[in-house]
Amino acid sequence: MNFEYSDVCKDYLRRLRAFMDAHIYPNERTYHEQLKSFGENRWQVIPVIEELKVKAREAGLWNLFLPDSDLGAGLSNADYAPLAEEMGRVPWSSEVFNCAAPDTGNMEVLVRYGTKEQQDQWLTPLLKGEIRSAFLMTEPAVASSDATNIECSITRDGDDYVVNGVKWWSSGAGDPRCKVFIVMGKTDPSAETYRQQSMILVPADAPGVTILRHLPVFGYDDAPHGHMEVKLDNVRVPASSMLLGEGRGFEIAQGRLGPGRIHHCMRTIGAAERALELMVRRAMNREAFGKRVIQHSIWEHRIAKARIDIESARLLTLKAAWMMDTVGNKAARGEIAMIKVAAPRVALQVIDDAIQVHGGGGVSDDFPLAAAYAGIRTLRIADGPDEVHERTIARLEAKRWLNEA
Amino acid sequence: MNFEYSDVCKDYLRRLRAFMDAHIYPNERTYHEQLKSFGENRWQVIPVIEELKVKAREAGLWNLFLPDSDLGAGLSNADYAPLAEEMGRVPWSSEVFNCAAPDTGNMEVLVRYGTKEQQDQWLTPLLKGEIRSAFLMTEPAVASSDATNIECSITRDGDDYVVNGVKWWSSGAGDPRCKVFIVMGKTDPSAETYRQQSMILVPADAPGVTILRHLPVFGYDDAPHGHMEVKLDNVRVPASSMLLGEGRGFEIAQGRLGPGRIHHCMRTIGAAERALELMVRRAMNREAFGKRVIQHSIWEHRIAKARIDIESARLLTLKAAWMMDTVGNKAARGEIAMIKVAAPRVALQVIDDAIQVHGGGGVSDDFPLAAAYAGIRTLRIADGPDEVHERTIARLEAKRWLNEA
Amino acid sequence: MNFEYSDVCKDYLRRLRAFMDAHIYPNERTYHEQLKSFGENRWQVIPVIEELKVKAREAGLWNLFLPDSDLGAGLSNADYAPLAEEMGRVPWSSEVFNCAAPDTGNMEVLVRYGTKEQQDQWLTPLLKGEIRSAFLMTEPAVASSDATNIECSITRDGDDYVVNGVKWWSSGAGDPRCKVFIVMGKTDPSAETYRQQSMILVPADAPGVTILRHLPVFGYDDAPHGHMEVKLDNVRVPASSMLLGEGRGFEIAQGRLGPGRIHHCMRTIGAAERALELMVRRAMNREAFGKRVIQHSIWEHRIAKARIDIESARLLTLKAAWMMDTVGNKAARGEIAMIKVAAPRVALQVIDDAIQVHGGGGVSDDFPLAAAYAGIRTLRIADGPDEVHERTIARLEAKRWLNEA
Amino acid sequence: MNFEYSDVCKDYLRRLRAFMDAHIYPNERTYHEQLKSFGENRWQVIPVIEELKVKAREAGLWNLFLPDSDLGAGLSNADYAPLAEEMGRVPWSSEVFNCAAPDTGNMEVLVRYGTKEQQDQWLTPLLKGEIRSAFLMTEPAVASSDATNIECSITRDGDDYVVNGVKWWSSGAGDPRCKVFIVMGKTDPSAETYRQQSMILVPADAPGVTILRHLPVFGYDDAPHGHMEVKLDNVRVPASSMLLGEGRGFEIAQGRLGPGRIHHCMRTIGAAERALELMVRRAMNREAFGKRVIQHSIWEHRIAKARIDIESARLLTLKAAWMMDTVGNKAARGEIAMIKVAAPRVALQVIDDAIQVHGGGGVSDDFPLAAAYAGIRTLRIADGPDEVHERTIARLEAKRWLNEA
């Protein structure tokens, strides 16, 4: 047993932190001011992001998430996890390192399952950070927590496929650089349940694609990224756009899933860690009733709970990452389900307490807390609500005793 | 002991509900669409509000909060409380009945403490719903949870007072109809602690008044109401603008406090009640894993908890209102502190569960849940954070045993 | 709306409190010492109880629970509730006033459904406090939370019924004065579900009755009351022992239920109230890190929460009692389910915090806290576990929207 | 980073589990029956324990806790931790492997700080499992959470020390085999705060030692181990009984502390793990409302939460153990404080849920749940209450920002 990060991880972490200190934290205000300066015209690229991307790439902090060393940094899940945590401290910073969702998951899909042609067209510019992408899965009309409910149709018509459906929570589809969608839909409603769905590549500017609206999250539009409702109306794409083959949508979804959860959870822990830092500093700097807030035992209690819960969630996530690296996604599916429930639960409580100690400032945008709360609250719903993962965990427990019960 | 609402309360409640059914709920979408149609130019009156105000006044549902029967409906706190709950189901509806904060508190101050001149100038148009008002108390530079920290200065200069300071969370100051501020500030820093502060009337358009910015709550700007940061730079007002007399700010604050807390808490309970309704209906209408969501025992648990907690918080608030009516604010201060802590705590949990059952829709603006969460989250901070009220309650407990301990 | 107790309630409460001060609290130690002095031979009457019963009867504090004024005090549920709370402060005190479970419920059954003969034989001595009784319902072999599962058989044989089964958690059956059991069992397994069960009177000394063992609650045996496992092996009783008629067991159970829940919940609130008193006093009297424990904000927080939660649970229970009095058990079934869940939940948290502030003393028997915790923990299970009542509450919520959903 | 247990740990774990399966679980009933058969005469050795000790020693499962390989198994904290967890599944099993508190801590003290003479007299028979020991620290008269409050006096008188004081929660002092106490007391009240206290060896049968009473824990006497209140009345011991030297009591306490917390926390996790197993099995085997309890989503939720929380607490504890092994107790003091708060918190919730699913059986002694709850509840108080450890954690957080705040 060894809880120490590997040397390669520690080296990247050191360099990443130096970059954050030099370029990310000092630009947090700039980011928001540039966005604000756009006024209503918010769905455009924020200049500071593009400037920092150049710097990050020069610093060798680029595509860190990719385990494939020819294309990315070649880090294991366990080695990348602490880097994802660090990026989670500033929500927009992942993009600077070309490590932002949903591009990361989409790039992995293309690396694993894309044809040479698909890779040339979409993977190459994604790896360079020239374009962005979206993942169109969830639909407003059905309970998408059960992915078999998805109704978007993908129909073969000669050398093309024709796609029809309405998707929402298509995150990133608001960005003008977003050029391609991976769309999940039904190719064969009569096939067995897990062979009905396929994934297909759809250019964002294909005729028939309409962005209906953006969906706010607790009042935030998350521009220019955004969470879009997208209509696909007789969208026609060449048959070569199919990923892996008809009926293999769930197979791709499974492969895409694990690493993304590690990334999300570690970023969530990074957000919690930063909230704790803000909570402690604020409590040290404010006085109430004759002493510093941090000397009041209710805050000792909350700070201690935050520290315990963050450490616990981090260890749980690191173990899940390590298991994915050593025994694979399937054997680690219990652990992956656990962190999906645990990390947001922990972070939301820490951030909420941090909001409380900041008073009015906490709910406003003077601190990154309210926005972090809103963003992380969605994680209890996105990619399967808590209840679905709890079900998975409980069933794995039951399995242990099935023959004996 | 009798838990039944009085006849007069029941009559108003019946009429209010009929009005809500006929005019408020059907216009919820209209309200948001009119606001949205303003685009960036959001700080203006929403037409549907003014239309409905006329209707409400005609229906005799106007100034219901005022216990003074010449000016308002003459209802006791206990009789008004259930009406406030009903209005709380739609956040903007209170204004339709001229029962919206902070006008209600400000009108009460003017009724109780205003001179004839002050009343003619400000109370009369407020009662008519022609103008709105703001209450400028909290300051960004100090821990305002301890109101003795407030630093804004009010200095006598000949026949005038000169006001200097920066206030924030001045709710409603974003509205173009907001014509007057009640400002808390120090007239005599050398007086004993609770005699240093005064309250003074300041016209919103007085020279030296600058709205610096609006403060979002989570991502909501709450336009056109808004929560503003306001600079008062050598703002000069006639000496007759002083309320009650120099050094009597805390006295006024005390008198203003109790009823406002009842209103806030009952509206909060109304919001929780509506969230529960939405939660139940959604759980009845969605299927997951082969049965309706409401048949899953985790939702039975959450719905039951919501019902228990809402009933409890309502009874606690009604009792506080009844005590204010029967034994007065001072004797009821423990109960008032209790509801200030309990009502938001209950409502936030109910709304959070309601969000969860709505999936992606829950965090967006397709349902009124995320906005309700954000708004009510501020109540754990505004008007004294939880910790201050808990301190009050604990001290009252200690007093019971002081001579015996 | 009026939260004041009635005059008759206040008068009884004043007299009850005086009695508690004069006779109960001063004898708490005596009670435990007398019990302890029995050593292993614990299943016998504790002398101080019998002495105090005489005094209570003389003081007119006897059979207070009975709404029938010829037999008891003639108090409504709402008027009796505050008295039950008061008794709940000392677990054994109810018996002093002949207001202890399960006798209260059993007496109510006999008053409502007993024949003259049954009443003469069993009700009269119960009302005089000469004998005690038990209620045999739950069985070890089945999930008794669903009462239709109960398997004990009651078979007609000539002029007799023959009873066979094993019951457990037969509280009070350990007491040598316990002379009669009300037994629930199946008379007709082929009848429709809710007509299969009957209730029958069985003398405790009938041939075939064997007390198999006592069941401890945590480490408490609750002697001499006790919670017994009882075997009924071909127990023969005259046919006149049947209550109300064959197949009417559920009807009786329903009638027995409501008032008993009010009693239990109010006693639970009394226990919570006492725990809060102990918590506050202890926190006032101990120093840690340079100041009194009560001045530490974590204890302000816990004390405030305790006060809020106790007040809320009390109001909820009083409202349930008032509804039973005014609209009946059936219309109040939601409220009765709510208090069944809420009161133990609140009390357990308050008692747990009180234990914490007492340190080592808290878990021992130097204070009545650990024993109260153990006793009240059973209430989340007994008489239907939380989950069953939450189900009831959720279904009532669903009903409200059924036609509209 | 590597979450795999070491080979030596895995080997011991395999053998320990085999021993548990072969000898401990099959004797759980025997243990309780033998104890029960003693009746009132409970403070004597339970035969099965002595029989199993022989077997365990033969199996090479003896003194596993001792890092010193000449005397014990020579395992690191990280390697011993999983073994402690395993033993925690059956509370009395640790003693079988001579790994029970407080002997383990006392042996460590003697190994580290004892003279040859002290070791010959007390360590040797303790290592052989021939005698047992107690640790006398806490006092009823003072808030012992602040150890500087301890008042027991140890006065030099010629070649002897004379000890006077009253101690309580002297666990294990009820056992007839308990032959020696380590007593903490003041040798020099005028010294600086952390040099006033010393530790001294006192034979259990020294004149002046009186066991005043045993302290129950939620009704359990924990015989024959027990938690005793002990009077030391002019107890005279030779000066050579002093440990390490006058004024070094805190130094010894510090050294004794870390490993003991790892042991306690891992045993606590073992108890939680077993409770989860019982909860899952019960939920699989019982039906309610037409399906198995485990298929109800409220139990999926509770089981998942239990699994997440147990995994988290285990990882946190293993990391604390690993830090103690690699960077030492002092650097690990934050982690040690964290597990002291986290492990009991987690276990109590899991056990409480397990009790709930067992219904009446859960609070009785038919399952080991209620007893586990009671025992673990004391851990939130013993060895410093939660609040003290939370204070430590919060202060360490503050230190991180002290120069920057």
From TrEMBL, chains A, B, C, D:
Q: Which cofactor does it need?
A: FAD
Any GO BP annotation: fatty acid beta-oxidation using acyl-CoA dehydrogenase
- GO molecular function of the protein, one example? acyl-CoA dehydrogenase activity
Per the record, its GO cellular-component terms are: cytoplasm
Which UniProt keywords are present, listed alphabetically? FAD, Flavoprotein, Oxidoreductase
Give the Acyl-CoA dehydrogenase/oxidase N-terminal domain ranges: 14-130
Its domain of life reads Bacteria
Q: Which family does it belong to?
A: Belongs to the acyl-CoA dehydrogenase family.
Its recorded name reads: Acyl-CoA dehydrogenase
